[in-house]
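Re: weekly structure request thread

Next one in the queue (489 aa):
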Amino acid sequence: MKINRFGINLDEGLALTEETLEKFYVLCFEDNAKKIIAWLKDNTIETPLLFGGQIGSGKSTLITKVFSDKSLKPDITLKFDKEGLNLDEGDFLSIILSGFIKKAIELSLDLSFSELPAEVFELSADNWQGIVNILHPEIFSMELFEKKILARKAIAKHDKYIIEVIYKLGDVLKNNIKSPLFIFASGIDKYDTKSAAFLSLKSSIRILSNYKTMFEVNAVHLFLADNASPFSSNNEKVFIQTVSDEDIIEILNKRMGVYAEPIKKEIELIAKWSGGNPRQAIRLLTHYQSARKNKALDKTGRLANAIKRTTDDLFAYSNKPSSDLIKTILKDKKIETSFLNLPGDKETAQESLYCKWIFITQGPTNGSWPAIVNPLVKPFFENEKSIMVEPEQRLLSQYAEINGMSTSGLGFNMLEDDNSQKSADKILQDFFSMGIEKPLSLKLTEILDIISAALLSNDRKDRIIVGFKDENILNAARVWTKSERFLGN
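Done, posted below.
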């Protein structure tokens, strides 16, 4: 991110770097940070920690903050999401092998215990750096790419031997460091538990579980049944939940800098539609700022555009979970752990959590996790139909009510929460109501423009016939077309 001294600093909600922490970091997870620091500093602990949260919840930023503030650094960092998500076992073992070799070379350790470079990679027996160069070439070319693919296939073919070499490398490293080997395995949160890649990843997770490894996982990974999970049930766990509206507002204010005040109300509303997920909030704000460039949109249209575009970004390729599951969460405000472990229809609970159709808001209580439905997706489940109410319908309904007209037939229908507080939908409705600057600045005016142009056209083929059931609308159309004729003359 290129930092603007006064604002605006927007992206897609990427994790903050050490350089951007001071300007943009908001303290949301102090308790989580304390738990992580305690685990890191305890040299008697040599078992993994599962650091879980939904995508975009702020996990990577928190880790960067902890490492930066406490001058802590993993012995080995393995990034499992930097080479795509359609990887196989050979790819994953290659990532671990390269990471272990790099650390051993950095410490100038004796690796003569194996002739792996010659046995599998056709290098000289002591050329361990050559393995790293093949598996992770610094220069991108067709020749090097093909070598990498062939080498990773060879690793998959000799996987049992490669795993033993990795374990031996781990022993050599531990003996040199003289403390638990601290590994940070990032990017595992990107893998759906039902994907082929996650199945291939399991053996790598089991290897790393023999060390003091921090696994960056998705919330759904914490709910896997013991027989389906590569993680041990007794591993320590730290879970990041959603953040408060106040924290989201502070995050957005920091991103906007001095330009936050003019859109204060819009930022408050974006916070409601974020569901407490920082990345979703930043994406909404980014789309809102983009929509401001469209001079044809008023503030209402810009906000509606941002909501629609963010919804398309996040859910265009997601499978919709069952309506019954969504209704249950709306009603009970929680999700049972058993829902996430059962096969069959209830398995949609896992996907709804992974794809952010629902958000977990707090830690577990008696086998259930407090949860909400993502505000962006609630309209998909109104009357069990996939309906996203158009902003024009909302505005037209407001205009009709102001002028004492019936809203019947406008398709205006919103899903309301049962609690006493206003839902995001209701707040949006109120915002639209207050923000109408041009009551007829809708698609309706475009329609009337087309009608008048056709009625007044000298070209016979442009003639159209329009029928009006309501006489008041007929009269309004007549006034419109007459005014157009008058202005045209």
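Residues 159-177 form the longest helix (19 residues). Residues 385-390, 408-422, 434-442, 484-489 have pLDDT under 50 and may be disordered.
Next request, please.
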